[in-house]
Amino acid sequence: MKIKKYYLKYKEIINYLVFGGLTTLVNLLVYYLLSFTIFNTDNSIELQLVIIISWICAVVFAYFTNRKYVFESKNNGKKEIIKFFLSRLGTLALEMLLMFIFVTKLHFSDKIMKVFVQVAVIILNYLLSKFIVFKGE
Q: 32, 88, 130, 135: which one has the fewest Cβ atoms less than 10 Å from its Cβ?
């Protein structure tokens, strides 16, 4: 009974961690699959292209899971989806900038930096989703 009470109290955060983790997994799987097979991430243009493709896959997955399971939004408006994608475009820009700085300019491993950058992106995405996108109107 305590587990259920704890879950209900922290349901949104727990669900975000679960579905955020799955979203990150989608992002990383697509990123690593493309970077190990098709694209050369030593090339800065190809690096950014891989980031964008993996981002698109993850954002589509995230919108539907966040809307239904995390924030339980009942809004069906275009405004919500626009806010979601605009907020995610902002964190994509941050990810691209950080990867450019650390990988292209400072020559850190893209495979390692991708994980570290994702942590910052996950936190920022949660805050934007909670307080801007799915806040209810």
A: 135
